[in-house]
Known about the structure:
Elements: H1 2-26, H2 38-53, H3 64-73, E1 79-83, H4 91-94, E2 102-106, H5 115-127, E3 132-138, H6 142-149, H7 157-174, H8 180-202, H9 204-211, E4 216-222, E5 229-231
Parallel strand pairs: 1-2, 1-3, 3-4
Antiparallel strand pairs: 4-5
Helix pairs in contact: 6-7, 7-8
Amino acid sequence: MIDQRNNETLRTITCFIAASFFCMALAGPLSAGEAVKPDTALKLLAEGNGRFVVMRMRQPNVTGAQREKTALNGQEPFAAVLACSDSRVPVETIFDRGIGDIFVVRVAGNIAADNSVMGSIEYAAKHLKTQLLVIMGHTECAAVIAAVKGTAMDGSIRDTQREIEPVVAKIKSLHPSMSGDALVYEAIKNNTLQVKADILFRSQIIKELVDSGKLKIVTAVYNIRNGQVEWGD
């Protein structure tokens, strides 16, 4: 009886392991250390987001083995993402990726206005050799909404708002009849484009990597209601 139970337990464990490897294989490379090119990295993120939208995540690299591997061998993320700190924007979950897959930098308004953010991005691109950087805003962003409404925020977050205000002013100038949700969304989208320009202007390291073809920067907007990522330039 004991042997039979042991055999049944062994078969269950074996089936579970086999199924886990099958699911991880379907979800893409198990390791980011294979010099993942920008277009391939973008494809992996888009496919993962597609799974997230329909709530059929496979959670690749969310394993004890991957945790131990990255602890022993270091990290080799295939993409870097600059996103907002908003708790409704869990980057790895949105893209259905796991441990060591994405180098995430999060700050309110997904701006790149200080050295800590710029240094993090440069570290991912130059030292970790990540070849894709995604600048991702999200719908219903409080910092952008405040900038659109002209309501001054309290404390240090006011500095973040000031970074976004010129973007809002530009949109209002180009589209004087635009208002409401449409204006907010356009400001969110254009804020990601402005951050991309800011990064290229403020970091010679990033600019050289982009110019040499070793790094690609793309923008995106995450919809917090339906879970979908809309890709930009």
